Amino acid sequence: MSNISFFEEVNNCFDKASRHTSIDQGLLKCIKVCNSSYHVTFPLVRDNGEVEVVQAWRAEHSHHKLPTKGGIRYSEMVNEDEVMALAALMTYKCAIVDVPFGGAKGGIQINARQLSEKERERLTRRYTYELVRKGFIGPGVDVPAPDYGTGEQEMAWIVDAFAALNPQMDADACVTGKPVALSGIRGRTEATGRGVFFGIREACAVKEDMEKLGLSPGLEGKKIIVQGLGNVGYHSANFFEQAGAMIVGVMEYEGGIYNDQGLNLQQVVDHRRANNSILGFPGSRNIEDSKQGLELPCDILVPAALEHQISEENAPRIQAKIIAEAANGPLTSEAHEILVKKGVLIVPDIYLNAGGVTVSYFEWLKNISHVRFGRIGKRFEQSSQNSMLQAIEMATGRKFSEEERKLLSKDADEVTLVDSGLEDTMVNAYGEIWETHKRHNVDLRIASFINAINKVAVIYQRRGIFP
Ligand SMILES: NC(=O)c1ccc[n+]([C@@H]2O[C@H](COP(=O)([O-])OP(=O)(O)OC[C@H]3O[C@@H](n4cnc5c(N)ncnc54)[C@H](O)[C@@H]3O)[C@@H](O)[C@H]2O)c1
Fold it and tell me: What does the record give as the active site (predicted)?
């Protein structure tokens, strides 16, 4: 286990990367700190009448752009340091993919698997109330999204509670990752996994990098182990499988399964649903300790569960040649160093799982502008589109870029728009990171941080310091 905290780990990467920039020390300090963090305890009435007191947090790492943006996780392990670290990663992630938000993150310390639906609903609504009370949620202030242990149902309860508590406000844009029927956007559920797929596809397309690893370019035939078959893990695995890669291992909290000749993902999901466990999947080998399953042979390892899954203890035994950091912080800094020395290609979280926030940004744009992508071109003449966009700019005080204007005006199907917008974003960002990695002779994580710090610093510089 790492002896420094998660937030310290993030800041160590920041420090290493900032040495490759020419930014003033004072400004670097402003960027690095977490601007505000809210810790709250509140009661939850369980279905049997017992009262439990739960702890929850929301951290807003950087107010250089508003709203701040970041998921909410329900996990027994969550604490203030973790939430601040994840909020900081959100700041850098948004910058890397040019999403104009600051970073935030929220968490409730609870095992969501042990809650009934009614209990989850009460918990979510009360947490929303606490955030509203302190001004830690709102369409132009701080906009949550799903993360570990939460999904679109929680987002639906949040928007409903927010609307009830703020009857004068336009509530839809207070949270993203909502069901499509509640002003969500098609493609958001699978967006993070799709982004992971695009990022790894880009990494595998670089011939010189693949040659160094002794791999052929492309995804076809690559053997993949996935840890965590939740939102991010399942969807990334699905896209990899569709692209001709082979899922050879799946590791879940109850154990893992492995078959060197490949597993059929949909059959694994059906088996898990029917048996409440992935263990015993026909034709596969059971792995009792799923963490050990990460050490099995494969080309690409996709940790998509929680942080610190690979530490200095198990890193030396990892056989994968590429690590796709679908989860946030799955490697400790010691593990990262060991694996980079071994020549493993690590595609870092702050870039790789940015697909979720990218599509969340599209959803938020759709909500604040009250448009249905795919229809607007048919319903409005160009002139009324322009005046509507101007009205939004005046109301929100922000200027849309040419790209955003196109996105809001184009007469295209929502899924196509979202997917192509996501693909462009992931492809461009990988190109920028790869160039920085070459120019400064640093690994992809440090290269990603350099790009993020430079982009955030420009905004701090132009705004200056109040008063
Ligand atoms: N959901 C998003 O859009 C999103 C966006 C960016 C990053 N992330 C990150 O991706 C990671 C996963 O998030 P998610 O939304 O997919 O969560 P999720 O709750 O949908 O899925 C997590 C999965 O991991 C499994 N799991 C838990 N502990 C495990 C263990 N010890 N070993 C193996 N499997 C285990 C769970 O059973 C679950 O199936 C988190 O680090 C999160 O911060 C999520």
Answer: 105
> Higher-confidence residue: 395 or 8?
8
Strand partners, 144: 70
pLDDT of residue 415: 78
Pocket test residue of 154, 232, 234 for ligand 1, highest count of atoms within 8 A of CB: 232
Q: Chain-wide mean pLDDT for the chain?
A: 93
The β-bridge partners of 346 are: 323
Q: What is the largest CA-CA distance in the chain?
A: 67
pLDDT higher than threshold 70 for residue 403: no
- Whether the bond between 179 and the residue before it is cis, its omega within 30 degrees of 0, is no
CB contact at 8 A, 177 and 360: yes
- The CA distance from 359 to 419, in Å, is 9
Name the token pair of 100.
Answer: 């104009």
Q: Is 371 helix (H, G, I), strand (E, B) or coil?
A: coil
Beta-strand ranges (E) seen in 344-434 are 345-347
Ligand 1 contact via 448 beta carbon (within 6 Å) = no
Domains of the chain and CATH, by start: 19-182 (3.40.50.10860), 185-374+412-449 (3.40.50.720)
Mutate which of 306, 358, 362 for ligand 1? The one with the most ligand atoms within 8 Å of its CB, which is: 306
Token pair of 21, please? 């920039």
Return left, alpha or beta for 24; rule: phi > 0 is left, psi -120 to 50 is alpha, else beta. Answer: beta
Residue nearest ligand 1's atom 9 by CA: 327
Pairing status of strand 255-258 against strand 246-252 = antiparallel
ipTM value > 0.95: yes
Please report, as a single letter, which amino acid is at residue 316. Answer: P
**302's torsion region: left (phi>0), alpha (psi -120 to 50) or beta?**
beta
Cα–Cα distances (Å) from 95 to 29, 68, 107, 357, 404, in that order, read 17, 12, 22, 11, 16
State the pLDDT confidence band at 417, using cuts at 50, 70 and 90.
confident
User: Does the CB atom of residue 228 touch ligand 1 within 6 A?
Assistant: yes
User: Structure pTM?
Assistant: 0.91
- Single-letter amino acid code for the residue at 421: G
Distances, alpha carbon 387 to alpha carbons 15, 47, 364, 380, in Å: 45, 52, 19, 10
The continuous run of DSSP H or E covering 56 comes out as: strand 51-60
